[in-house]
Amino acid sequence: MKRLSTILLVVALAAPALAANKDMVQLQTQVQNLQDSMARMQQTFDERMGVMKNLIEQTTDNINRLNSNVDNLTKTLQQQSGDSGAKTDQVSSQVQALHDSVDEVKARLNKIQQQLDAMSQQQQNLQAPPQGAAQAPPPDVLYQNALRDMTANKMQLADQEFRDFMKYYPDNELAGNAQYYIADIEYRQGNFQQAVADYDKVLEQHPGGNKAAASQLKKGYALLELGQRDAGVRELNSLVARYPKTSEAAQAQQRLTQLGASRKPTPKRTTPR
């Protein structure tokens, strides 16, 4: 009778151990799935990273539950050790093996977590600006600094600031003005060919801006400085026609007069009676 009781006790104790072993297999499968997923991670990094972290959390919860079950089983074995003899020792060995397996899975899981953290850090480093890279000032500050430096005849510094403005704020309402001043600095420094190209950018990209007329005027002047008289005259005449009531048109007309190339007014047509 005592032998039968011992057998029943061993069976009762072994059942939880077998269940725990089944959970162990499931955990190992989950860890393997994690490793396979890491090998396939190429695109949609953030989305996959979220899935991986969620799977790690689920696996960690399962490990904690399994650990708790194994601990409870160990306590039960310790309480029954006096009555179970060698059979209890056998089950205890199985439980210890489960403990070792749990520790192994936890170690693998920690390694995967470290790899994920490293990958996440690498991704952040790729997205982050280089260390020491200066952040662009607000557009109004950058623009006013450039104007101040140009007024102070710090042309090289002003040119760089206006170019930075165009780089960081190409769609800002002052972008046309900034491009005009880039061209104007080239003009003041005698770089007339480059000035023509930069004035063209204002006319092409900001035709409705408040520096369009000034750009066409200075483009005409630059062409004249380059010895391209006909092209310069055409540009000034075009300005007078496009912006007839502006101060730039008056300046263009004055220059045309000096060149002896004043634009002749179109004669009024008379209706025959």
TrEMBL record:
Q: What range does the record give for the signal peptide?
A: 1-19
Q: Give GO terms for biological process.
A: cell division
Residue ranges crossing the lipid bilayer per the database entry: none
Output the superkingdom of the source species. Answer: Bacteria
Residue intervals of the Outer membrane lipoprotein BamD-like domain: 138-259
Alphabetic keyword roster: Signal, TPR repeat
Using the UniProt annotation, give all residue ranges assigned to the region (Disordered).
116-138, 247-273
Bias-annotated ranges (Polar residues): 248-260
Pfam families, sorted: YfiO
Q: What is this protein called?
A: Outer membrane protein assembly factor BamD
Q: Which organism is it from?
A: Candidatus Korobacter versatilis
